[in-house]
Amino acid sequence: MQFAFSDCFLGGGRRVIKHSSQSIAVEPQVLDLLIYLIENRDRVVSKDDLIASIWGGRIVSDATLTSRTYAARKAIGDTGQDQRLIRTIARKGLRFVGSVRAEPESAIRPPTEALAERRLAPPSLSERPAIAVLPFANMSGDPEQEYFSDGISEDIITALSKLRWFFVIARNSSFIYKGRSVLMKDVANELGVRYVLEGSVRKAGDRLRITAQLNDVDTGSHLWAEKYDREVTDVFAIQDEITETVVASIEPQLYAAESFHAKRKPPGNMDAWDLVMRALSHFWQVTRQDNLIAQTFLEQAVALDPHNGEALGLLAASLTFCVYAGWAEASTAVPAAERAALAAIEADDQDPWAHYGLGCVHLLRRRFDDSLAALELALRLNPNFSLAQGVYGFALAMCGRWQEADAATCRALRLSPWDPFAALYHGIAAYAQFVGRNYDEAMRLARAAIRLRADHVAGHRILTAAAAMAGERGVMQEALQQLKSVQPSFSLSWIESHMPFKHEADRAHYIEAFRRAGLD
Question: Which of 43, 82, 181, 247 would you call most buried, defined as having the most Cβ atoms within 10 angstroms of its Cβ?
């Protein structure tokens, strides 16, 4: 069925929602919630009804249900104060109270016909942006390869949906363009998206060539393009590898593009999403000043929307990073980060950034098991989250599990070799080798971190410590001088108060290195 109510239209089968003639991108669970409430508008729907129908009976927190209800109301122009359309019935549940006109789904013409007469409005810039993944074209001329090209597209859709910060159009909607030559503008208008990912698969003998391209339809630009040549061995392993690589590569491109769109707006017209994207562009710069600017933007976003999980999670991440880098005092930054992380999880307990932020807080609080659990949950929610993977390696290293830490940082670098935090990953890998008493390898990795970022504090710390333990006095003295220039506050007392060692032997090992270096 399709439903019309107030100034909204909802196509259940096509999973399209429009408000004031604009296509609105919403998360699948939010759309499912709306459809269920409308279809059962003759009664009060209980929390148990919603959990059974939308979450399949899985345990769901009250915060999750509240955030989905908030998003549903926002999508159709309703609020928790007005409750013109979705009303909360105390201690009973929710009921859709708007006047609804329902029509058979067959009344909706397919996109090919509709495009000939009209163009749907693009999503509002105040809404979270959406991306569509078109079915990858099979260029092999072999119908049997169709399953592989379709599988690549479907896996990328699934992996992108874990990012949470972007809406990803469902497979059934994007696959209506399979086998057709279409204009990106038409796809964007019909599906209500800003970004479109397209690609192709060509097989020749025992070789596969896979190409992919990310388009910003709003600006008409190509944000990213890559080709992958592989030997045909295990097609499923290739499919997994390409999916992982593509998603990890395009995620920072999406954030950068969103920051570009936000910068085009006058400061007074920026909404919470714009502010988060502006903040993220500074967070990626990995400097003290940029993190302070990022925190200002995030505080503004939270002031506009106190339940903005993205802003809260990123704020926790920025605050804890400043503590690790020696740019902020733990006594003030960690409590603020913990409040932000917990509020982010309350707003959206499926957001990997929220759990990443909490994992960083737990580590600084010396809650080692909790830290590892939170970071592991962040990685389950988004296996391609390179920053969480790198910091997970740091947490493992601080727990003395240096070989596992080394493997985690290697995975972070493989996921995102050109990551803004690549120097951090090299520095963590260096520390892991230091814990393992492999001082030459620790120095090599520390130098790699410093080559990527001359101001990378951890790289200078580990280079100093490893050189001291290896007896490389010239390297040690030069490294310590550089360390003091990038972190003047560094001292033995700073190590005691800010470095969260689980084992006394590891703490003593690190302290001894700096005593040998002559640090006070």
Answer: 247
